[in-house]
Amino acid sequence: MREDDGRSADRALLPAVPVGLRRVLDLVVAGEATNRAEIARRSGLARSTVGQQVDQLLGRDILQELESGESVRGRPPRLLTLSPRAGTIAVADVDNLETRIAIADLGGRILARDTVLVRIDAGPETVLELVCDRLFALLERSGCDPDRVRQVVMGLPAPVDPWRGSPLRPNGMPGWDGFPVAERLRTRFRAPAQVDNDANLMALGEAVHARAETPVLCLKIATGIGAGLATAEGRIYRGADGAAGDVGHIRSLGGGTALCTCGNVGCVRAIASHRAVLLNLGIPESTEEDPLHGVHELAERVANNDPPAVRALRQAATEIGELAAMLVYMFNPRTLVLGGPLSELRDDLLSGVRAVVYQRALPLATRKLTITTTQLGAASALHGAVALATGDVFSERGIARLLVD
């Protein structure tokens, strides 16, 4: 039997959520109703029932009711929205050289964000301590109560067991394998916590926040190469054990004897990742003066049409295109999104991937396919983390937590 982070016990201790209250809150959160009359009309609930449920949500500081500036028959309507006191969400997107963090309200609006310059190979204890400290500082700077954090979500550049909240045999991340990341986050914030793969969160961010047509398949091309899939229902596809999307270790026909961090040779990651391109060009990934030296140097060389850099980028695009074509066959996405540092070099990478995918994949799989770079840039995983968090906060279990807090 799979462990579920104590969620079964959580459900047993929490009260049942009245159907009417759930319906009222769903309509307000979705923006489908902004006052009591609209809620009654759309929900089919009696006005008295709506009034009771709204009053309970107001009393719990989950909703607030504001005077509208417009007058209707002499009486200004009162508008219902989520209350700022309802709480906040803390999210982090951990990458190999830096971590992006943000605080959002329960409506999904990011209130503040920051970047923590810490290498992932510093180990989980160091990374989590620094990230958590900066998140608390961001809460304070934003005027948010740290005791009203409703959910914490962290993305990691590795396969993740989402039920235990731990990385699974990650490459280049010493000390992270099996580390109880979610448990540490729950302890620090005294709030529910989730951990997921960063490419999964990128796909969810593009689907929910950027409104890309689903299913969305996201390829993150960074130190490694990972894939995330947001289904037509807006859910993350994780596979049986959380290992879905670890596509960088698929063998490439042109991989030759290139040694990968996994110990095998010829993996796509070893010849077409951002790190592989830098290694091929002799560009250091980072320096003491600039932790992101490789990103900046490669971008400058490509912008200046440096022949070796342009050739290396185009070769990587061809390899990634072959991988993408295979994934398009398997998952038939409506949108294929390229993310990560290489995706910021838009023209050469995008055109190269498109050419291979449209050449290799049959028309049935590509006739309605859009291939593009991320619309949210480096923030896509943060937005995905916020979407994942709000989905849990406004689930039946999450609403029950709000009512007893």
UniProtKB/TrEMBL annotation:
InterPro entries: ATPase_NBD, ROK, WH-like_DNA-bd_sf, WH_DNA-bd_sf. This is ROK family protein. SUPFAM superfamilies: Actin-like ATPase domain, Winged helix' DNA-binding domain. It comes from Streptomyces violaceusniger (strain Tu 4113). It holds the Pfam family ROK. Belongs to the ROK (NagC/XylR) family.
